[in-house]
Amino acid sequence: MSGAPNSAAGAAPARALPGSGDERRHLIVAIVNNRPGVLNRVASLMRARNFNIESLAVSATERSDTSRMTLTIVGDEVHVEQATKQLYKLIDVLKVQDVTDEAIVEHELALIKVRVTGKSRPEVVSIAEMHRGRVVDLSDDAVIVEIVGEPSEVDRVVELLREFGIKELVRTGSVVMSRGSGSIEEQVKR
Amino acid sequence: MTQAKHVPGAGSSAALASERARKEMLRDARIERRGGPRPRIGADALCEALLLQGSTSIWGYPGGVILPLYDVLVDHPGLRHILVRHEQAAAHAADGYARASGKVGVCLGTSGPGATNLVTGIGTSMLDSVPVVAITGNVPGVLLGKDAFQEIDITGITLPMTKHNYLVRSADEIPHVIAEAFHIARSGRPGPVHVDITKDALMGETSAPHPTQEEVEAGLPGYRPKMDGNARQIKLLADAIAAAKRPLILAGHGVLIAHGERELLELARQAQIPIAWTLLGIGVVDESDPLAYGYMGMHGWKHVNRAIQSSDLLIGIGMRYDDRVTGNVRTFAPSAKIVHIDIDPAEIGKNVVADIPIVGDAKRVLEALLPMTERVDPAARATYFTELATWRKESESSAWHGSGGWRDGVLSADFVVERIAAGSGYDANLTADVGQNQMWVARYGGFKRANSHLSSGGLGTMGFALPAAMGAAIGTPEKTSWAIAGDGGFQMTLQELATIVQERIPVKIALMDNKKLGMIRQWQEIVYAGNYHSEQLAGPDYLKLCEAYGLPAWKVAKPEEVDAAVAGALAVDGPALIWFEIAERQNVYPMMPAGKGLSDLIDKWGDDGEDVTEGASGPRLDPTDPNAPKGGAE
Ligand SMILES: Cc1ncc(C[n+]2csc(CCOP(=O)(O)OP(=O)(O)O)c2C)c(N)n1
Ligand SMILES: [Mg+2]
Prior knowledge:
CATH topology of the largest domain in chain A: Alpha-Beta Plaits
Radius of gyration of chain A: 22 Å
Mean pLDDT of chain B: 91
CATH architecture of the largest domain in chain B: 3-Layer(aba) Sandwich
CATH class of the largest domain in chain B: Alpha Beta
Low-confidence stretches of chain B: 606-634
Number of strands of chain A: 9
Distance between the termini of chain A: 59 Å
Distance between the termini of chain B: 64 Å
Bound molecules: thiamine diphosphate, magnesium ion
CATH superfamily of the largest domain in chain B: Thiamin diphosphate (ThDP)-binding fold, Pyr/PP domains
Shape of chain B: globular
Number of domains of chain B: 3
Strand order of the largest sheet of chain B: 2-1-3-4-6-5
Oligomer: heterodimer
């Protein structure tokens, strides 16, 4: 058996597996056809290919025939690149961009229903105002705080309000837009 | 108008439409054929669209909601509808038709069970990138989502296993959707496209025109396959080839799909690079060419896997570096730079990290590469080639692999495959089933031509051989089409014997009967310490079976009887079957156990030589006299 390289010889280092690098949170923007079932296609693909979506926001765009999806996915560069390439394979996906490292505005909106008493109410209101939030509903024993900002800002407010007792919480997940004049929508080929 | 109180939303237009559709479904049996001129309906548009795409055959099976199509088929005589015995076979036949002919295959089923029966075949085409358009009927639009009779969310089911799918709800959409479906199925990386059409869309009157190819492409802004590789990357590859001492080409299905065989051989000759191939790459090069090195992977030739493991430059073209090829990725080709050429960007970096990734059509990339590639003198590769030749001699002459006089008096499977290939002048389509028989076909078929080896590689679908060979026979009538199937796989779709007899489809069947789920037995012997379970397989008396179906058949149990039976089957003008009673315990060697690497091949296990000659036979329903060429209705 001369010359047969043996895996046990250990001469060469083990080949790296794709997706074994450092993980972090990635922000992906996709412009898709505004058609029934497209959200299902994206979700089904992500599930089947084992990509874990942290958040997903779907919305209208300037054009009525397209919609925009913003996905946050955790993984290494190769894994997330796989996700974008797999998304591209969907016929209804027109444009995909990983904007994680670009100059962007990233915001999310949260509605937080907080338990209040006559005494604690002013405190809750002032926490909201200090963080550029608004009180959008008031009742005897609860208020709804609306907060818009980067996810970390929202996290902070949620943390601060937690000690009063949060009855209900809803967050939209991030939506992002690149700074400057560049436009992903304008890049969509037609 | 009386208001039906039991109808939800009674009186609303939706409820009325739904009631009408329900009645319509119940009335199926009373639809009368319209004589004389009649309006063009969705079903006509569908037939026209298929004909415009060059389809001349549809593999299908009727049912309630698809009957409007069967009602108009007589008016479109250019379409030959071939009635199968199970929709799975329709999907496999469309697949085999596409693999052998390079054209898009078409299969058809009704809603509900008809549609779900197609699913295995659609999945088979998906995993092997085969262009198929699968059409199903569905319940009338207003009944969708109401669990109507034979309603199932079939587009939900096929979504993850098609290149794209459609739910068509109006007749006007049909021309465009069918044209789009064909375009998507055959372009870029091919694949199956499923079109689900409601019954009312098939029946609705329409004057919608058929789109031009330009209109189709303009309507798909999200679908632009990248054909040309990046020139800088291609230059990097040319440089890497110039620097390599032990380069090896790994050619896959993508080369065949792109019709890049000639360019592949030119590259191999110009730069003196041997060619190895994947299961679906079989036929990319004439196996007798000096630069054709062999079939790689789990049951590939040992010399080929050794060459991979010792290579310094692997040039993967139109292949996926999938687990059957690489084994454990961590120990795969430890000192090789990896080049990956594929038209599907998502394949690159999916299974292995590529050092030189190139996205593009295999033929176009090779065309761009050739002028950049320096001519290499074979003498410069003398050491490499000598070593390769030694390894090859070693592995081909090993007793265990069975070829040629492997054991006197025993009918070995590899010998049967060799004789079938030789007896058909190495010019036939050989369609394998799944299991040991598949590996024997892959290893011993001696292929010389592109697209003549058909095999369910990605999904590994038992039952594939017979129906896919029917498709191949219709797709390439000028060639002989063999179905080489194990007794397990054959029993999964043997109902199609009736189809080939009724439609006179000249498929020649080689039944490789080891009376076992051979591959399962092999794994239980080697991987599960001989703990056999459910591997013994009873079967019928296949001569009686063929007689019942009206099919000429032979039974062969000795090596010296093989050639005559092959010649006999080939001489039949129509379908025929040869029942080969092969050695019951022959294993496929070498074998790479799952999780292991290409350097960990098992050559031979225990003394299976004795096992092979042992007379132990599996259960048999009705043993008959061997070797009686027994004809059914010829
Ligand atoms: C539909 C399906 N079910 C199960 C399997 C798993 N499987 C792979 S090979 C094999 C045995 C095949 O036996 P047979 O058809 O007799 O072929 P042989 O290996 O004996 O040549 C089985 C059960 C499969 N590939 N496909
Ligand atoms: Mg068997």
